[in-house]
C-alpha cells in the first residue's frame, strides 16, 4: 500500500480537495448548461461532440470514433443511429473492408454546425464573462498539466508526471 501523498508546497489537503470538487462541479454544470443551450437547435451535447469531432476527421471508422471520444461502441452506435435518422451523418462501408463502417457528415450537418458554432461562441462568452484572458491561460495550462499527469498515470509513466512535493 502506498503512503498518502503530501499536499503540494503552499497548500493543504483542503485546498486540493476544493480544487478537485470545483473541477467536477464546473464540468457538470457546464455540461448541463450546454445541453440547455443546444436544445433549441434540436441537438444534444453528446451529438454535438460527435459532429464537432467529425469536422476534424470526417469519415472515421465507427470503432475508432468511439475510441477517440472515449465512449463505448454500443453507446456511440446509438448516437450515430439518432444522428443518421436526423440526416446529420451517414454510415458507409469501408472500401477495403466492408465490415468497417465509416461515419461521414452530411451537408445538413455542415449547415447545423455553422449555427451551433455561433451558439457555442455565445455560450463561452457568457460562461467566461468577467474572467481575464491571462487567468484563462493559467487555468488552461493547469488543466493541461493535470491531463498530462492523468494520462501518464494511466499509461504507467509516473516519471512524466514530474516531482511530487
TrEMBL record:
What Pfam family is a match for this entry? MarR_2
Domain HTH marR-type stretches? 16-148
**What SMART domains does the record tag this protein with?**
HTH_MARR
Which UniProt keywords are present, listed alphabetically?
DNA-binding, Transcription, Transcription regulation
Q: Recall the GO molecular function terms of this protein's record.
A: DNA binding; DNA-binding transcription factor activity
InterPro entries reported in the protein's UniProt record: HTH_MarR-typ (IPR000835), Tscrpt_reg_MarR-type_CS (IPR023187), WH-like_DNA-bd_sf (IPR036388), WH_DNA-bd_sf (IPR036390)
Q: Does the keyword RNA-binding apply?
A: no
Q: Which protein is depicted?
A: DNA-binding transcriptional regulator, MarR family
- Name its species: Marinovum algicola
Source organism lineage?
Bacteria, Pseudomonadati, Pseudomonadota, Alphaproteobacteria, Rhodobacterales
